[in-house]
User: Fold this.
Amino acid sequence: MNKATILAVILLAIIAAGALMVNREMRDATARPAVQRQLSQARLAQFAEALRQYQGEHHTWPDTTAQLLRAGKLPATSTMVRGAGIYRYRKPAAAGPADTLVMWSDRPHDGVAAGESWGGEGQVTDKAVPPTAYALTAGLEVVALSPEEWAKRKPTEEIAQPEPPAAPGTSAPAP
Assistant:
């Protein structure tokens, strides 16, 4: 082996070790409840900005999450938030109130008992932190909700309705 090959191998080993350390640090940081909550709020703020841009261009709300992601140039994984599941989007009614939820998570962030890990490495909370859900309203405001309020305000999942029967004199839809 010549000097250039040895230096290249050493450089690659240093880069690989650095990447592993950064990955571990990021994984550890996102496992902390305080970090999860900050990331959740930041993600919703990104969606609020994407919705502002979409409305500025189209003068309406996107119909689907996929439209929102494309318009905001956000990756498909941006709806996933550690500690809260996946963010759901629903286009609000045209005349709906500004506090209608347009984005909400599958579940609230868990509560943290006093003395448990909270923020920075080795940091524990001195008091209990209740469970919290973050959501985005039609007024494009990020709000924090108690689990009870979240359960009441989030839109219910729609159940597929059967096709209405064909009117007399028309052909029935194919099964």
Notes: The CA atoms of residues 44 and 89 lie 11 Å apart.
